[in-house]
Automatic annotation (TrEMBL):
Keywords recorded for this protein, A-Z: Cell membrane, Membrane, Transmembrane, Transmembrane helix, Transport
GO biological process: transmembrane transport
Low complexity bias locations: 60-74
Coiled-coil ranges (or none): none
Location(s) in or outside the cell: Cell membrane
Region Disordered, residue ranges: 60-101, 459-479
Identification of the protein by name: AI-2 transport protein TqsA
Lineage top rank: taxon: Bacteria
Cellular component terms (Gene Ontology): plasma membrane
Topology with respect to the bilayer: Multi-pass membrane protein
Major localization class: membrane
Homology family: Belongs to the autoinducer-2 exporter (AI-2E) (TC 2.A.86) family.
Length: 479
């Protein structure tokens, strides 16, 4: 009995501890459940965040609750249906997942130098295309363009005379008429005199040419070059055969010459009418051109226009004066050397002087050839010396002194512009190429200086601008 009582007592103690163990186990499970609930709530909160901007994205339940509790839903019977099956936001990857780097932007993958080269390249392509289209348009209407450019050059030469007559008291229309008529009459008389001299000395020139050819033949036979008479006769025969074989081409060239003559007369008439209107309404035409320019660029263009016109006027007047001096000096020299048609040759020298570099060479070579076939080798050498001496004086004394700094164009730019103008517009293009380059140089220089001064003026205005006034403080803000 004693053993049973002792065992019962031990069992009673164990049974007394069981409720405490169960109570502790329940409390632990409760705490574990609370922790699981907290973690689940935190995971749901993280899942509802935007992974890019970290802005909370409302869930479908939140949308539904907001739609149900909004005043609009209470006051209106027609409510929009709420989609209860919206897809949940994709949760971010776990912390142990490997980081995946995003692909760079293709623009950032291209080197900076290549991007700059590409940007410059397509702009150059656009500029080259624009120049090509402009060249094609000018080639299509080359007669009109050359006539207008010639009118500009003649206007630059005659406009100071119109201004002088206006200062003397003549009305603008009368001053324009007197100047234009006088100029055209003088040019017409010069052209008539050249044609008259050529026609009057044509017979004498042909006889002198035949005599000169015979003299050249004898000189070639007696020269140290060992030229035989058979070789000279063969050269003459080849020339006559070439002329006979190309009779059709020569005839077609003559017909084309008639067409060219008609075009030249048309261009002269266009140039005359354009000169009249430019002399009379030049300022109004310039104002109309300014109205075509965008308003932001109008002040710069308005300032560059007078600069360009002064450069063009200085170039034309200086070139005319230099050409006149060359023609007079070379004409006097070949006249005293006995070269026939000295006056027509002097006029040709004057006209070709408007083509820089090339014109002087061509006109001088023409005078030397005429002296060679008419008066022999010695006279031709003397004419060559006269031409070279006058051209040296022109290049080193006349042009720097007369033109001065009004027209500052590098000799390389002169050569390239004359070549390009000759390819595009022939002789007329070669004549207008250099003044066009000179005017462009003046305009670009002025616009660059104008933009720099505008930038400095704007910077000074910002530096000296007063500080902005403080906003008034209200009584509420002070409290």
């Amino acid at each position: 009995m004693g053993r049973l009582s002792g065992g019962d007592k031990g069992n009673g103690g164990i049974m007394a501890k069981v409720p405490n163990l169960l109570e502790r186990l329940g409390a632990g499970l409760t705490r574990m459940g609370e922790r699981l609930d907290e973690r689940r709530a935190a995971a749901e909160a993280d899942a509802e965040l935007d992974p890019v901007s970290a802005v909370p994205v409302p869930s479908a339940a939140a949308h539904t609750a907001a739609a149900r509790t909004s005043p609009a839903a209470d006051s209106s019977d027609e409510t929009e249906p709420v989609d209860d099956h919206l897809p949940e936001h994709v949760p971010p990857p776990p912390a142990y997942a490997p980081a995946v780097s995003a692909r760079p932007d293709p623009v950032d993958a291209v080197p900076w130098s290549m991007r700059v080269a590409a940007a410059v390249g397509w702009r150059l392509l656009v500029l080259a295309g624009s120049i090509y289209v402009l060249t094609q348009i000018i080639s299509a209407v080359s007669l009109v363009v050359l006539a207008f450019v010639a009118a500009l050059l003649i206007t630059a030469l005659l406009q100071p005379t119109v201004a002088r007559l206006k200062r003397m008291g003549l009305p603008r229309g009368l001053a324009t008429a007197v100047t234009a008529i006088s100029g055209f009459v003088i040019m017409g008389l010069v052209g008539w005199f050249v044609v008259w001299q050529v026609m009057d000395n044509l017979d004498d020139l042909s006889s002198k040419v035949r005599a000169g050819i015979e003299e050249l033949k004898h000189w070639a036979l007696n020269s140290p070059f060992h030229v035989t008479e058979d070789q000279i006769n063969q050269i003459a025969k080849n020339l006559s055969d070439t002329i006979g074989a190309n009779t059709n081409e020569i005839t077609s060239a003559g017909l084309q010459g008639v067409t060219v003559l008609v075009e030249v007369l048309t261009g002269i008439l266009l140039a005359m009418f354009s000169t009249l209107f430019l002399l009379y309404d030049g300022p109004k035409i310039w104002q109309w051109v300014l109205n075509l320019v965008p308003e932001a660029a109008r002040p710069g263009v308005a300032g560059a226009g007078p600069k360009a016109w002064r450069t063009l006027t200085a170039y034309v007047r200086g070139t005319v004066l230099v050409a006149l001096i060359d023609a007079v000096c070379i004409g006097i020299g070949i006249y005293f050397l006995g070269v026939p048609m000295a006056v027509p040759l002097a006029v040709f020298i004057f006209l070709f002087a408007f083509i820089p570099l090339v014109g002087a060479v061509v006109s001088g070579a023409l005078a030397v050839v005429v002296a060679l076939v008419t008066d022999g080798v010695f006279n031709a050498l003397m004419v060559l010396l006269v031409v070279l001496a006058v051209q040296q004086i022109e290049g080193h004394v006349l042009q720097p002194f007369i033109l001065g700094r009004a027209v500052r164009v590098h000799p390389l730019a002169v050569v390239l512009s004359v070549a390009a103008g000759g390819l595009v517009g022939g002789i007329g293009g070669a004549v207008v190429a250099v003044p066009l380059v000179a005017v462009t140089n003046t305009v670009v220089g002025y616009l660059r200086k104008y933009s720099r001064e505008n930038a400095l003026r704007s910077a000074r205005a910002v530096e000296h601008a007063p500080p902005p006034a403080a906003a008034p403080v209200s009584a509420g803000d002070r409290e």
